[in-house]
Amino acid sequence: MGTKTVIGADQREWQVKRNIEWSTPATGDEFEHDVDGGRGAALMILSSLFLMWVVVFAWKPAGVNVPWFYILVFILVLGFFPVRWYLRRPWTINAKTQGSYEDGLPAENWTGMVRGIGKAREEMRVVVRSLKTRATPGHADSPLQPVN
Questions:
Q1: How high is the pLDDT of residue 34?
Q2: 92, 110 in Cβ contact below 8 A?
Q3: Nearest residue to 53 (alpha-carbon basis) of 80, 81, 75
Q4: Region label for 16, one of left (φ > 0), alpha (ψ between -120 and 50) or beta (otherwise)
Q5: Between 20 and 30 A from 111 (CA), which of 92, 103, 137, 147?
Q6: How far is the C-alpha of 90 from the C-alpha of 26, rounded, in Å?
Q7: Is residue 89 helix, strand or coil?
Q8: In terms of DSSP H, where are the helices of the chain?
Q9: Distance from C-alpha of 55 to C-alpha of 87, rounded to nearest angstrom
Q10: Residues 6 or more apart in contact with residue 65 via CB below 8 angstroms
Q11: 108 CB contacts (<8 Å, ≥6 apart)?
């Protein structure tokens, strides 16, 4: 989604990018818990919820007037979870360089995952600053790790 080209402190050119992950990748620790009902289950739940609300409003007596702020609260509650789901998606951050033939510096590829768009933007800024000052994208407690 966002890509930046950075010249590191050792004069290597780095490509730093972040991508949203629409499905959470299974890791070794979480593999057994990565059981998902799939799109069919989600579609069935959402359609039954929609049907329930249609029935509730269809059975409303003719003389009942629903205030506008009830409808507003209903829309806000209904929109809260999809917005929260989008904002808390995992993001993959990748920093790679082709290396430098003249200086004998090797090609490197660092990757890591953070959760949330705000955290992804912040980590991207940290990686860019680290490359400009220390010529390496990772630090002691960084989510980025070198990949072979």
A1: 52
A2: no
A3: 75
A4: beta
A5: 103
A6: 12
A7: coil
A8: 38-58, 68-87, 117-134
A9: 31
A10: none
A11: 95, 96, 97, 99, 146
Q: What whole-number distance in Å separates Cα of residue 88 and Cα of residue 93? A: 15
Selection from 14, 38, 34 nearest residue 24 by Cα: 34
Find where tokens 């400009």 sit: 132
Measured between alpha carbons, how far is 71 from 10 in angstroms, rounded to an integer?
A: 58
Classified as helix, coil or strand, 61 is coil
- Mean local confidence (pLDDT), 4-8: 91
Dihedral sign, CA of 23, 28, 29, 30?
positive
Span 39-97, pLDDT tens digits: 777 788 888 888 988 888 788 888 888 889 988 998 898 889 888 888 888 999 999 99
Its pTM stands at 0.68
Average pLDDT of the chain is 84
State both tokens at 82.
């999809």
Taking Cα atoms as reference points, which of 130, 93, 91 lies closest to residue 109?
93
Q: Report which residue type is found at 117.
A: I
Q: Locate tokens 């510096």: which residue? A: 105
